[in-house]
Write a structure and sequence with these properties.
Length: 227
């Protein structure tokens, strides 16, 4: 896929449903890409995925109208750049807790002059040859920090105000853990639901996209209604 079809959907204010791929299997990726998801994220943090299996999953998705995403194992420019070169149209990074970490994340995802990403998009263009990809990548790539700690909540305004942040992805389990609660998905805890409302509101003020990891279709539908 030569363009990021998820970004215009989000810009239009439409909900998007993202599949989560922890299994290191191109066949699983091909099946998921046909299931109607708007995007599918290869999970290199907690999934049984590595860089090579991510590439195989992306190759299996290529002929289907689904946006390829990745959750990198950490906010580290090497793996972020390689994931983008390998075909990701969006990067989710865990544990973004400060403005400085958010700025470093954006820089790793953007080519100069807006970042420090090295040129070499091996799956987006012939290696070493300039193409239209380098001209559009800064606008097309989705940069999505995870908000999943009490520290991130304390620094929320500063993180969301970093130029280049396209959205956030809430990690419910780690967020609950950080607040001294049981780590789980699909919370009913009033304190955590109030936090979700705050996140939706603050993202809305800035025109960026709030997302959250859900454990069931019914809870996903509820979160879509929340915004």
């Amino acid at each position: 896929m030569a363009v990021n079809t998820l970004k215009p959907r989000l810009k239009a204010g439409k909900a998007a449903v993202n599949g989560w791929l922890a299994i290191p299997s191109g066949f699983s990726a091909e099946v998921m890409a046909q299931c109607g998801f708007d995007s599918v994220t290869v999970d290199m943090q907690h999934g049984v995925q590595d860089y090579q299996s991510m590439i195989q999953c992306f190759q299996a998705m290529d002929r289907h109208p689904v946006t390829r995403m990745v959750r990198v194992p950490w906010n580290e420019p090497g793996i972020i750049g390689k994931s983008l070169d390998g075909g990701a149209w969006g990067v989710i990074s865990p544990m973004i807790n400060t403005k400085e970490q958010a700025e470093a994340f954006v820089a790793a995802c953007r080519y100069p002059p807006h970042g420090t990403r090295s040129n070499g998009p091996i799956r987006h263009a012939t290696y070493g040859v300039a193409s239209s990809y380098q001209k559009t990548a800064n606008d097309e790539i989705l940069v999505i920090p995870m908000i999943e700690t009490n520290q991130a909540l304390d620094n929320l305004d500063a993180i969301l105000d970093v130029p280049g942040i396209d959205g956030i992805y809430v990690g419910p389990s780690d967020l609950a853990f950080s607040l001294g609660k049981t780590p789980q998905l699909d919370h009913e805890d009033p304190e955590i639901l109030a936090i979700y409302e705050r996140l939706v509101s603050e993202c809305g003020k800035r025109g960026i996209y709030p997302g959250i990891h859900c454990g069931s279709a019914s809870y996903a539908a509820r979160m879509i209604q929340m915004g």
